[in-house]
Amino acid sequence: MGDGVTDNTITFRALLGTGDRTIHISAGVYLTGKLDIPSNTIINLDSGVTIEDNGQLGPEDRLVNIEGKNVYIKGAGARVISNRSYYISSEQRHGIFIYGATNVTIYGLESSNNSGDGFYIGGPQGQPSQEIVLENCLASNNRRQGLSITSARNVKVVDCEFEDTNGTAPQFGIDLEPNYPTDSLSNIVLLRPFTDANVGGGIQICLTKLDASSPEPTIDIENHLSENESPAFRTVGLSNVISQISYTVAGSTAQDTSANTSP
């Protein structure tokens, strides 16, 4: 029931089942706890759908979890939101958590007010997420990051907005930051990202956890528009690893490419 009062956790879990199905959700405000999206699932969310955290997530719980393959979520005008005031500790309660997953597309969805990240793309050691697309998505007023990418291959983030991140460092709109030397940031493409008023800054690439044995990061950031934040873009730890990083700002024809040095 999308009345903003009824807890739909049990119903949603039954609806998702073990995957291999297409799900349509009509407009409404649906309270829920942690949800795991199984493989081979298509979810169509009407404009006006709000999936809202019921306030009972544990310190390591994420609201929407995708750890399988072949997941498509269409959510133009739909939201996944939390109430940060429920939680005074932990920065791991992310809105959308893509972890070791393959072939995931999320279109038009907002993930805001989370006490962790709006969107997180990563994976266990040796199992990066692969073939991930975020398009026309929004992350606003999240505590740690709008988007974190820690271990992934073949990621496209297209025409997405990340704004007003505040609360727990590093507080960037987008943070590309591996956790282990074995993590991969391969063929990461950010097209026309818009970052606005993030306390830490717009986009950060932090490679301090990588070393000479790490996979070579290849990152392409094109036509970044940054407003009301500083720095707009920064790199940390590039001397640790051979890398290919390109970066352009909106309206610029010049391109900065770095290998072991900041642009």
How would you characterize this protein structure?
The chain has 263 residues and is mainly beta. It is 3% helix and 49% strand. The chain has 1 helix and 26 strands. The protein has one helix spanning 9-16, and strands spanning 3-7, 21-25, 28-32, 35-37, 41-45, 49-53, 64-66, 69-74, 79-81, 96-99, 102-107, 110-112, 117-122, 129-135, 138-140, 145-149, 152-158, 161-163, 172-176, 185-191, 194-196, 201-206, 218-227, 233-236, 244-249, 256-258. Strands 2, 5, 8, 11, 14, 15, 17, 18, 20, 21, 23, 25 and 26 form a 13-stranded mixed β-sheet that branches. An 8-stranded parallel β-sheet has the order 4-7-10-13-16-19-22-24. A 5-stranded parallel β-sheet has the order 1-3-6-9-12, with helices on one face. It is globular, with a radius of gyration of 18 Å. The termini are far apart.
The general outline is globular
Radius of gyration: 18 Å
Main pleated sheet? 13 strands, mixed
Q: What class would the helix/strand composition place it in?
A: mainly beta
Percent of residues in helices comes to: under 10%
Unreliable parts: 254-263
Distance between the termini: 51 Å
Number of strands: 26
> Secondary-structure element order, as H and E?
EHEEEEEEEEEEEEEEEEEEEEEEEEE
Q: Helix tally?
A: 1
- The overall average pLDDT, rounded, is 94
Strand content: over 45%
Tags for this entry?
49% strand, 26 strands, mainly beta, 263 residues, 1 helix, 13-stranded mixed beta sheet, disordered C terminus, eight-stranded parallel beta sheet
Write a compact overview of the structure shown:
With 263 residues, this protein is mainly β. Helices cover 3% and strands 49% of the residues.
